[in-house]
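Page 47, continued from p. 46.
Same chain as before, 357 aa.
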Amino acid sequence: MKLQRDSKTLKDKAISSLRIAMESFNSYNEDGRITTTLLHLQHACEMLLKAVLCQKKISVFDKVTGKSIGFEKCLRLCVQDHELRKDEAGIMRTIDGLRDAAQHWFVVISEEMLYMHTRALITAFDAYLRRVLELDLASHIPSRVLPVSTVPPGDFEFLFNREYTKIRELLRPGKRQRDEARGRIRSLLAMEALVADEVEISEKDIGRIEKAIRDGNDPAVVFPRLITVGTATEGEGVTLKIQLVKKDGVPMRYVGGDDPEGAAAIREVDMRKKFHFERAKLAKKLRLTEPKAKVLRQYLGIDNDPNCCRVFEFGKSSFPCFSDNAFNKMKEALDGGLDIGALWNEQRPGPRRINKP
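Result:
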């Protein structure tokens, strides 16, 4: 595949950042090693996503501000239209969350967890590079510089349970290691991006989780998202491939950010990020007129589905907004052969009747 000029430049930047991340991971120097690794892994992901968008001739600049769009917007566009799988997006979001926490405050992440996430990111990066840009990582980075660890990573569930036990021990009375415990909690919260589209970390959440762990709650109660994550491995040594995949777990509960309940549970944050499609924008994305999009929403029950639609109120005005779930559900119906023309003729409003005196 012949790459566009900007796409080639961004691809080269992605590979360069990945090289630096690997050098940092395998470095003998511990000072700043984890932060440097996370910073460059995240940058490599963003540059790869933008390389794909440029290759597909999608603008990566905001029309209003003229600035380059951010990581989350790139990720959403690639998942929607450019073959990025949800498990690949999940590990990229996790790396971004860990990087954000490390850059703006601090995290504590075990060596085994860091290795597992780095390896999973390499697997996703290589797969997406091959699938969309028809390039392979081995042509740019020799396997000898990929992340190497003398400690077997183990299964994610095993590592998660061990990490939870470690946090519980750090929070025992008299330990005086609360800061480290909260740093590890922050890491686990960032890892929820493996199975969640939106994850934000606040000190309020960390405080609630800290209290839940002190009160002796089970891991399944405190981190219901993370117990749904499993590990799929292939190969060994420098050829090892790791995928973090979703498995069945306990039902999730949603609580407000100020909920005083001890259990961490799951909270929805910044709903406007999740429900980001307004009616006109959703219709345009589907290449439909607004009236036809409305008829399709009614047919699929989109407006009554809390995972697809949310009504925001500003003063006396209310505005329904829609999530990626709504878009995906409607697009699947259209791609599946639903005749929108026939549906429109069947359900569209009839001519307005005028009662004569």
